[in-house]
User: Fold this.
Amino acid sequence: MRAVILHAPGDVRVETVENPTIIEPTDAVIRLTATCICGSDLWPYRGIEPVRRATQMGHEYVGVVEQVGDGVHDVTVGDYVVGSFVASDNTCEICRAGYQSRCRHQVMMGRIGAQAEHARIPLADGTLVKVPGTPTESQLRSLLAASDVLGTGWFAAVAAEAGPGTTVAVVGDGAVGLLGILAAKRLGAERIIAMSRHADRQALARRFGATDIVEERGDEAVAKIKELTNGYGAHSTIEAVGTQESMDQAIRATRPGGHVGFVGVSHGVELDGLGLFLSSVHLHGGPAPVRRFLPELIELIMTGQIDPGVVFDLTLPLDQAAEGYRAMDERRATKVLLTV
Amino acid sequence: MRAVILHAPGDVRVETVENPTIIEPTDAVIRLTATCICGSDLWPYRGIEPVRRATQMGHEYVGVVEQVGDGVHDVTVGDYVVGSFVASDNTCEICRAGYQSRCRHQVMMGRIGAQAEHARIPLADGTLVKVPGTPTESQLRSLLAASDVLGTGWFAAVAAEAGPGTTVAVVGDGAVGLLGILAAKRLGAERIIAMSRHADRQALARRFGATDIVEERGDEAVAKIKELTNGYGAHSTIEAVGTQESMDQAIRATRPGGHVGFVGVSHGVELDGLGLFLSSVHLHGGPAPVRRFLPELIELIMTGQIDPGVVFDLTLPLDQAAEGYRAMDERRATKVLLTV
Assistant:
């Protein structure tokens, strides 16, 4: 089959590799109907994370079950399914508490590689969620978003306790930040302040529910959010970048007693303990337990209540993955879908 | 009046200073019936926080209202009252959300100094809570604990979401940690793991509700807590020290999705962003909004349901404050009450 391989920073190739097979009895193998490139794939692409060996990329997927192991009972060949970037048993105490991304038996799909025609899905019963019926082209795009960026933005909004009456600030205008806006809106937020300097992303932010746009950064951004909130700061802040600047900005933009939901993978971030102590915010984040939200997200998508797939602003065939990486790296695209 | 003055690290004296008076119309002046020495007073006493000038110490108090300003309506001369270490208006949005320790108009009582015979209390209507009737000697001690250490331990347990069915780990066996145990027990925790190496404090921990004692520290302590929790870690962890080691220990002892309530004032703590991200814990803390809990705590004390005053294991007259500081510094006493 064809798969996307990163050989070195900037060096993405589509190559032929062996088809995946069932290894554990709890595995399934799916045929992907679409995959995509994640903002987090850019860290190794840009050399910010080391590339130690040629690596099959990708962790977002929707598709049809082709094979199941003997221990798989809840999905069968032919099922249309979505899973998240972490395979999880969905039965351990951590999963049952809603933290499937930290399942006792977790397998990171990024280590398997889902930018490919087929993928092995470990712990298939716990990981995969069936889609009722066959999705339209538009629903397919939204389901693929649910696999990571929507689920992550949704978790960020839940972690930030976005809800009725709240003012939510969103740091980061990538796909996760934008879909965090969609989530905050669905969760009932009264006011949503998007932080963005890009006209196209501002437009999408407004489409998803942003009521205010802040173009400033750093101290000025914090001052602007305070100004918009009667001096108090946001009730809820979504952090969807993962840098020192974005974390500091998120914490400082939040009022005492407020909530910061952080989902940008931390790169070189150090938090000052006293600063955090005096901020009096709630801080919660980490790898999003997308599996927790998938049933609800699939339902919202298949009944036409949300349309997160519009976050994909460039669609390319799998063979042109390298161009997809370049477009995201150069910020010509927010999120790239690869047709399989 | 007499007051406790810190002149330099290790140099505590009881001196005669001017009696406080009403400055703002929202002030009250109270006659203290008791005050005490806080673990946080030891930071400047030990020179870990700088002592830039002679400073009147203390921020914990119970007493009787002696004078009120023209703008005070809810307390009157003769009322028996308790307040917290932060004076607050109790009307701003932050106060109404339960974060009176970060009130928009907050005044830190430590800047006024409550180890004295009288104290000016700013924002008296918002700050002071009336005690029904006149407390017994034992109730007086418990009310004084409510003023800070009980209220802080209570907040830590609430921030850590201690509740029915939870396993709570407590890092720190000072007065706050010990009263965090009492709070976790009252909030319904199923299992409470106290971390302590001191026999007297272990005994008090058990009296307050601890079910297990861990004497190990660092990696070994974390391993022990994992062992006691089927490998998962505690649901809820109270951090009541404020050092790098204690914060790291608290975060690592907590399961993914669990909650860390941190109330030890951070001293030189730096949190690794990626470590926090991957821990998937909820982190919340800061200066405790004791005012939020005072009505409930006073009720529990005056009806004999809790007895936090036993945390005071040394009682001295105000004049012997210097000996009180020495005893706490040398860990001969957990918490010192000063009679006025």
